[in-house]
Amino acid sequence: MDMSIEEFIDSEVKSNDVVLFMKGTPQFPQCGFSGQVVQILDHLGVGYKGLNVLESAELRNGIKVYSNWPTIPQLYVKGEFVGGCDIVREMFQAGELQQLFSEKGVAVNAAA
């Protein structure tokens, strides 16, 4: 891999509408916090890319530096850092997450 971990993260964040840096995969989250964010995104029917930080210590450390945020999971929408599990959950419960997706032009499941 020729690019640095920062360039890789930057590329993923900018080339995918919704990116979740998480422990495990969307199909098999390996921590409760990652699992909660996956459940919220799945409930909203939002398409997203999940990146497993457990596969690479470089990625796990790099994303914390990139976002200046100490914990995993981390959700990005259209290149913008949204937050971790607590923030995503609070935004979802308040209807703000759905509004953010709408403002950013990210399709959500109308039933949500």
Automatic annotation (TrEMBL):
Record has Iron as a keyword: yes
Keyword Metal-binding recorded: yes
PROSITE patterns: GLUTAREDOXIN_2
Domain Glutaredoxin: 18-82
Alphabetized Pfam families for the sequence: Glutaredoxin
Sorted UniProt keywords: 2Fe-2S, Iron, Iron-sulfur, Metal-binding, Redox-active center
Family: Belongs to the glutaredoxin family. Monothiol subfamily.
Protein name per its UniProtKB record: Glutaredoxin
